[in-house]
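Thread: "does anyone have the structure for this chain?"

Original post by V.I.:
We have the sequence but no experimental structure in hand. Need at least a predicted one for the grant figures.
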Amino acid sequence: MRQAISAHDEKDPRGLDIQLQLQRESFSLDVSLQLPAQGISVLFGASGSGKTTLLRSVAGLEPQARGSVRVGHEVWQSDADGLCLPTHRRAVGYVFQEASLFEHLDVQRNLMFGLQRSAAPRDQGVLTDAIELLGIASLLRRPVGELSGGERQRVAIARALATRPTLLLLDEPLAALDPARKHEVMPWLERLRDELQLPMLYVTHSVEEMTRLGDYLVVLEHGRVKCSGPVADTLSSLDTPWVEPQEQGVLLDGCLIERDAQWHLARVAFQGGHLWIRDSGAAVGTPVRLRVLARDVSLTTQEPAHTSIQNHFQAWIEADQPDAHPSQRVVRLRVGTKGANPAAGPVVLARITQRAWSQLGLAGGQSVWVQVKSVALVG
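Reply from O.Q.:
Generated one for you, tokens below.
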């Protein structure tokens, strides 16, 4: 089962501490990060924001990078102490956009190459675990040239895990795959996240990958950290200019509590409410992650009745601000009724018109009903 990552303690010695600077003629990287000890930390941003440069610097592939890198209790770089381990001495597994496998070897021998780089090269157990975790036992005798793109990436990840890394780096591992192959690999990445007590840095500019896979989010812009924090908390901010307006929304963690076979729907409970979604076949009791976009949320001052919108619950207005376009307003709502513990419930965002805001007489602190027109199951 997935192990929840609690609010991150910046002084946690088990996590990652990254302080790196890299100056080039046309680019400057300057980051200071404390990241969780397990789960997927997503490095998110537009092309050229410094995501891959940061990943390469952590791996020791950018010799001009200055600063310090600590992974748990292992110090890989400390300029103050005159220490900078070369890449081959850093316990890092690296997965690239293109699965860089040896074409002249079959899958089994590609994996054995990874095992030979392990700190314990005779330990077949780690390779066996990686094969089972990625579901590639049936591929072992296959030539690399006969693998699909998704299969190649699963083999590449297994080979990286066979090195017994203390940190796994994934540089846009789905970018070279078509949509069908992406959705083939995504569940295996979720399994890695949920079953391995291993920190992972995952580079992407895909909102879908970030929301489905990420536990912690680092947004980079021009080589600097624009914001960072748990994914759900960061996405629930009113100010997310690094996300396209139509993609702005929140994540809700819940549990599937009911399936309605007649209407092919499933009911997911979360703190303060529940939502009906399309039945994906998941069993009752399954923990799920839902994504609710601000554009799919409307507000009313009275409990909805006689409406086709089936999902609604109470909330109160915690904050609001004008949107980029003068006709729109973004509203941050806290699920539940305002009481002794006003920050107890999760957050949803709504994008409504300024005209609706005015005509409904909405204001901060006011209780309203939230109507959700659409919700997506993302994990």
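V.I.: this helps a lot. The helical segments are 51-58, 107-116, 124-134, 149-161, 179-195, 207-213, 231-235, 354-359.
O.Q.: and The chain has two domains: 16-243, 249-377.
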